[in-house]
Amino acid sequence: MLKPAVISKLQEITGKAAVLTAKEDLAVYSFDATGIWSHLPDVVVLPTTSEQISRIMKLANEEKIPVTARGGGTGLAGSAVPVKGGIVLVTTRLNKILEVNKANLSIVVESGLVLQEMNVELAKLGLFFPPDPQSFNGCTIGGVVAMNSGGPACVKYGVVKQYVLGLEVVLATGEIVKLGGTTSKNRQGYELAILFAGSEGTLGIITKVTLRLLPAPQARKSMIAVFNDVTVAGEAVSAIIASGTIPSKIEMLDNWFLQRIEKLTPMGLPVDADAMLIIQIDGTVETIESDARRIFDILKKSGAKDARLAKDDAESAQFWTARSGGMAAVSSAARVNLSEDVTVPRNKIPDYIKGIREIAKKHDLTIVLSGHAGDGNIHPSILTDDRDKVHFARAHKAMDEIVDMALALGGVISGEHGIGISKQRYFKKAVDPVAIEIMRKIKGALDPNNILNPDKIWEN
Ligand SMILES: Cc1cc2nc3c(=O)[nH]c(=O)nc-3n(C[C@H](O)[C@H](O)[C@H](O)COP(=O)(O)OP(=O)(O)OC[C@H]3O[C@@H](n4cnc5c(N)ncnc54)[C@H](O)[C@@H]3O)c2cc1C
After folding, report:
1. In terms of domains, do 137 and 245 share one?
2. Confidence class for position 327, pLDDT limits 50, 70, 90
3. Containing domain of residue 319, as a range?
4. Are 109 and 194 found together in one domain?
5. 81, 112: one domain
6. Does 442 fall in a domain?
7. HSE-up of residue 54 (Cα within 13 Å, Cβ side)
8. What ligand 1 atom has the least distance to the C-alpha of 142?
9. Are residues 308 and 414 in the same domain?
10. What is the DSSP secondary structure assignment for residue 90, as one 8-state letter?
11. Helices in 82-229 by DSSP H: which ranges?
């Protein structure tokens, strides 16, 4: 419970209408897209400028009030859940595009801008920001930087941190600091802007972001490949990566997803296949035909039962609609969808898939596979029910085994969704203890009172 004087000061800083304290308003900001964790904040503030955020942070630091930054609330790790109450600081009213510089291939935006709104403006100018978390209609630029998000196009183009040139950040103390810059090369001491990529709101509030852009590809083509065995689909992905012709997207749906999506939205999916790959190639008009032929040959040689190019843009859009239906398909299928984000080296994808199938059989569980196959980032989801204690315990045991297997294959516990709350229990076994100690020292140096998104990443 905050002192009434704190609420009054917040109202003084942002104006009364931007400070929410009604229980039904607080409830809206108590959870993220996992829907698993929920905690009411004491107050929600919706500032409109960096200066307001600076004053809020000064106040919070003096009063030692926890502050959880929140963009679109689309995170999948519980990172934006205000587990210690306090202030939820929503960035969505800082939503302007400040500068697009075509000659420098860069853009400066406020951190609460929704990703898709930026993409629409860039498309008008023939420009392109490749990382494409599939929550693009709701996630914010500050959120994707704070989570160092990925998405299907990362196979070819990499994740968000590879596009961060500079940031404006408000520190826990309220100081406003500029990190990095606008140049594509920048060697001025430690890469502090990149430190904030993936920091999950624990080091500072990102208020402005300068991003590197690319010219939009001239041409794109999509294809699907159908397999009788999901492991063979995994082998085909490794073969494509090894070939040197890298598609912009290689996504996978297993048989469970094909059946479920077809049931929810009939579109003629190959429901008898064990897995389907959806692939996009991009490039110039001259290169795209030969690249497509090369990928096509690899798929056939790797054992695809069938592979074909989309006949037109409409069919291509249909392939990608099927893929984006994956999240809705799985989250509506069971009371609890225990889903993870482990990622393995790309040459280990077949071993990883085989291992998951064995774990599912051993524990008699439905474990379904979808996701960014080209990155070794295939999300396993276990369909379970927390009211059935025995089943639920078995599901957790199986997930622990999946994580152990991924680590043994040289993988990581999170490829893109972050640690938040959801992966804290795996953090210590995945990360070198000395590295954890360095992270704790960085956190201590930037946030000595531990007010910024406390109890995240670190095990409680
Ligand atoms: C349907 C769906 C599909 C998804 N697909 C993908 C995908 O393909 N790839 C992928 O990587 N992720 C994916 N995600 C996860 C999610 O969308 C991303 O993590 C997203 O980038 C979070 O952005 P947000 O604005 O919603 O952040 P929020 O959920 O609001 O916050 C996430 C974290 O960032 C911090 N934060 C937010 N804004 C700031 C700021 N300005 N300064 C400091 N910290 C801040 C918060 O404190 C929190 O810790 C998906 C989610 C959904 C629901």
Report:
1. no
2. confident
3. 219-326
4. yes
5. no
6. no
7. 8
8. 41
9. no
10. E
11. 115-124, 141-146, 154-157, 192-195
With respect to residue 422, please indicate whether it lies within any of the assigned structural domains. yes
- CATH value at residue 12: 3.30.43.10
Ligand 1 within 6 A of 143 CB? yes
Question: What's the CA gap between 120 and 437, in Å, rounded?
Answer: 42
Task: Assess whether the C-beta atom of 69 lies below 6 angstroms from ligand 1.
Answer: yes
Check if 417 has its Cβ closer than 6 Å to any atom of ligand 1: yes
Q: Residue 289 has which token pair?
A: 């035909």
Residues 6+ apart with CB under 8 A from 308: 223, 224
Dihedral in degrees, nearest 10, Cα atoms 228, 230, 231, 232:
40
Mean per-residue pLDDT for 431-444? Answer: 97
Probe target for ligand 1 pocket from 67, 68, 74, with the most ligand atoms within 8 Å of CB: 74
Question: Which of 60, 90, 120 marks a domain boundary?
Answer: 90
Per the document, the length of the chain is: 460
Q: What is the mean pLDDT of residues 86-93?
A: 98
For residues 83 and 117, membership in a common domain is answered with no
Q: Strand pairing partners for 307?
A: 225
Q: Is the residue at 440 inside a domain?
A: no
Distance 191 CA to ligand 1 centre (A): 22
How many domains does the chain contain in total?
Answer: 4
- Whether residues 172 and 227 fall in one domain: no
Q: Does residue 146 have its Cβ closer than 6 Å to ligand 1?
A: yes
Tell whether 110 and 197 lie within a shared domain: yes
76 C-beta closer than 6 A to ligand 1: yes
Q: Please write the tens of the pLDDT for every residue from 274-291.
A: 999 999 999 999 999 999
Encode pLDDT of 364-416 as tens digits: 999 999 999 999 999 999 999 999 999 999 999 999 999 999 999 999 999 99
pLDDT band for position 460 (cuts 50, 70, 90): low
83 and 163 housed in the same domain: no
Q: How many angstroms separate the alpha carbon of residue 192 from the centre of ligand 1?
A: 20
